## 1
Amino acid sequence: MNARHEPQLPCTFVIFGATGNLSSNKLLPALYHLEAAARLSESLSIIAFSRRPWGDDEWRSHMREVLAGKIKDGTDTPVFSRFLARFSYQQGDLNDAASYQALASRLPPPEACSSTVFYLAIKPSEFAAVIHNLEAVGLNRPRGQNRVVLEKPFGEDVESAHTLNQLLHQHFDEEQIFRIDHFLGKETVQNLLVFRFANTLIEPLWNRNFIDHVQITVAESIGIENRADYYDRAGALRDMLQNHLMQLLTVVAMEPPAAFEADALHDEKVKVLRSIRPIAKRAVHAHAIRAQYARGTIDGRAVPAYQQEEGVEPNSITETFVAAKFYIDNWRWRGVPFYLRTGKRMERQTSMIAIRFRLPPQQLFRETPLESIDPNWILLSIQPDESMRMEIYVKQPGLDMDTRLMQMLASYLKTDEQPLDAYETLLLDVIEGDRSLFLRFDEIEWAWRVVDPILKHWAVEREYIPTYPAGSWGPADANRLFDSDDQAWRNEL
Ligand code: BG6
């Protein structure tokens, strides 16, 4: 996307937590694919920072190993060799000042290099130490140039998000800070903006007069993998709903921005978040449901209960599923429920936004064999495939007045095109200094405010959490969120 300012291309990219999950699964493959697409400047070097007592050679064999099954074309190519050659390894401890001295001494001096990117692919509890330590060795300068990238969750509630933001602002200018929510880099999410604002067909219908309700589902079949020490403290509400799902909600609900640029987009998203009706203390039960997976079967394979996962407290009541209902009290959306749900170890991986339209005002075909017409849906699939479907009824050819459901399918990709991973888009934006798809602090703050009543309520109700079998669509109780009997979760495209 286009930025307003001139990008200052960085010459060094530092990955803190280089041997961790995020780095191995997302960052390294995405950087490689940028290399393969010739989008990394020749002079960019990458420093992998981690605790393991390695040198460059060990790091490079580690890269070969972790990337083997994850990149197009494999690791025996000239592109891969070029990619490997960009890397060097810095052994260090995130809490140890001397490690940052050592890091600083490897970086080119500011007069030789316009900027450095520091990517914090680490646990949120380690952010503060890194920010302090970078400042202590002067790596927060040049101000306005060196960049720091933070993964979500940004804080664990409104107060801690504020504290983290204050700390960042003590040492970095706002344009140096990239708060990432990788869902905003997903093709369907960006496409939603184009779909809504580049087509005159859609926008007139996109409001309370025509839309009955909106569902946002992010179902994952994976469990918590080996992230228990983070996840058991966070839970699904903090890990997914406050950020990824809330961002999807804002993109569905926002007004057209004045211009397609970072601040104008952020302004509209914040307006949506501010218009969400606060959930009263006594209404939390009616608006939010949590549950945890019990053992079950996924793809024919038995999987353990959450409490049996390695590193999870045996009596943990952390939620691995959350469903919630929100209302946006503005002219466009008043009275339209937005149902959000996400969970781990669900039947299969499906992420989609499903928009259900109202029934036609007149049931013209009631007296015919066709008793009633089901409502129309627009389905925006985010994962595993990226597509947009419109569900409409047509008459079946023949003598009777029978209908048939037809899906108009628009797959975004042409047959010769490859899907992009969100991180490819976002890492390129970081390198080019474009912050449109990154979060401004007030978006994060308002999203915390929206979920705050739920967090507070759950924090005191700590005796019990209902369960759902792994491999299911979550607890049946999630159906009680619906405002009317003809609404139900949509699991299929
Ligand atoms: C991360 C969450 O932000 O998003 C994970 O911490 C989750 O728990 C992941 O699995 C899902 O992202 P994606 O892009 O793999 O669907």
## 2
Amino acid sequence: MRVLLTGGAGFIGRHVEDQLVAGGHEVVVYDSFRPDVHAQRPEPRPGLIVGDVRDRETLASALHGIDTVIHLAAKVGLGVDLDDLDDYVSSNSLGTAVLLKELAHAKIRHLVYASSMVVYGEGRYDCDRHGQVAPEPRRTEDLDAGNFEPPCPVCAAPLRPGLVKEDAVLDPRNAYATSKLSGEHLAQWWVRETGSRVSALRFHNVYGPGMPRNTPYAGVAAIFRSALDRGEAPRVFEDGRQRRDFVHVRDVAAAVTLSAAALPQQPAFTAYNVGSGTVTTIGEIATELSRAYGGPAPVVTGQYRLGDVRHITASSERLKHELGWKPTFDIQTGLTDLLHDR
Ligand code: UD1
């Protein structure tokens, strides 16, 4: 394959580039080096184009000779406040729209799109009396009172969280999630218009070497590591029992590479969850990192972020069965790997 890798200088992108090159593919990295993520502009090198996906001319010339595009470029994270709203829509929704338009002009038909588990909103829940239910967004009064679990929307009973599959209802609950889902929808329409193929990979919480440091947009594992580096305790929001699936960045890069290579044999549009299959609580991640680091024990603060969902964990069986993907890192090895990343 000759691949254009947008966001190729980012946390996930650098691992994807390594694996593509190791697999004998040609890679052109396309990255805007946005200053809120990258402290420095890069030295010029062959195979690197500094550009924003919204910049049509630079993008169009970068697409010459490309047969597959992997679109990782995005503004990630939950956002700091409402001032981030238009930047999410512009960077992610508009960015994807411009990319799709230029792919159509260049007659490039194969796209891997980096989506996210956040498109599901609150994950899967079952009520003993009402079966599978979709909880409402959590209410501020409940969160203020320390009631973090979303109740059954019918009888208010406690719910059992479960694993989301790709055909679950999509229900984004913050600006980032909305922008990621709009990218999927735009890609589906592009597929119909052009006869192309897209795999949308819905990443779980990605962690590992190269995670961004000291930014409010970093994932929680990086935030905890930065706290430990400063000699401080990791600060765990809510009661620490919120559930996630932490998937190692090298396993994620393998999923991206595999799905790009499989595109010619794929149906028009396929969504794949990408998670390790191991459910972990944020409190457990904090405890494990503090222990492995030899730092202070975590503090559970009871703080919350309104855009956060309580539990979100997925089944990645489709990716395993259809593409033969297998996660290889367990969380202890993965977190140690993260701590040794200096
Ligand atoms: C993360 C990713 C998002 C990705 C999604 C896929 C980041 C910043 N977010 O979202 O891009 O699409 O996974 O599932 O990488 N928390 C603390 N203390 C802190 C910060 C956070 O306890 O200092 C808690 C949060 O309240 C939340 C959990 O940690 O419950 C995870 O937060 P975060 O790492 O931001 O990830 P997600 O919101 O799950």
## 3
Amino acid sequence: MAGEAFVTLATNDNYAKGAMVLGRSLRNHNTTKKLVALIGLQVAEPCRTVLSSLYDEVCVVDILDSGDAAHLAMMKRPDLGVTFTKLHCWTLTRYSKCVFMDADTMVLSNIDELFDREELSAAPDPGWPDCFNSGVFVFKPSNETYNKLLALCTETGSFDGGDQGVLNSYFNTWATADISKHLPFIYNLSSIAIYSYLPAFKQYGRDAKVVHFLGKMKPWNYSYNPQSGQVKGHSLPSDLRQVHPDYLTLWWELYTNYVLPALRQAYGQTAFNTGCVEEEVSVAAGELSAPAPPHPPQVSSEERKQRWEAGQADYMGADSFDNIERKLDSFLK
Ligand code: UDP
Ligand code: GLC
Ligand code: MN
């Protein structure tokens, strides 16, 4: 029987770091499946070297871009047009079945049992649960499906400007036809959902098998202090800390303990240290390539309001008690 593989995608060095952590997490949990990384030409040579040490195959693919600024603007994610590149995964016909995982996911246990599922199995999207989230899905490579998907992209485009819109239009009976194709949410637990339905998270969160850092703010946009084990600008409310591991810190632990040493070696000490303050103890994931956004990235006051309303307050930063107190004081004066 042909092989089975986990597949991910990284079109640039930042997402490549995500793919490294994902690959490491799959290996740490002893997957018996092959690992395949689809990458863009833009991914730097040393990053490819590290990816090759973790993945069985690293395949360079053409970047497919929806170029659909209007729909992407609705998601406030102009960067996601390139996620059309994900569709290349259907061309991996040397495998009989695959599980695609976004580069911003990380596994917390062995999930090889996903290969018992059929195409197209996926978990509900936290924003619109009648759609599946395309960050984790089971699929069957097929050139025929690939061509039909591309035809759909050309003919009708994607309602969100990215792969998830077009995949939901193609596999449009997912919501109703076969409940076995609904993956439990624990296979694609998005960080957003943690805050939007806290009691459910407290009840079921401990069973999480895959964490998905969905949204603009990715783990590699933060920086980390390995001495204190703290991710800068991030802290969980203490009641949450008691019920589940801090996934962002877990991501950074994997990154610092496994990925960073490999990257340092691949880049060579000199090249790698360029631009870094030697004495500084914190490690910025962005130090290897394009500068990372400020830590944490500046958000507009509208966006901050939305996050606040969704329960995603920046407790350590802009929404810290000190800041709020200062604001109140200024109103009262
Ligand atoms: N991706 C990529 N380069 C990009 C944007 C996205 O390689 O510039 C890939 C990567 O695998 C990523 C996936 O497409 O995980 C989907 O994008 P993202 O995770 O940012 O979307 P979200 O889950 O936040 O909606
Ligand atoms: C989603 C998914 C992501 C997908 C993007 C664009 O939010 O999490 O995997 O690439 O939308 O469609
Ligand atoms: Mn994602």
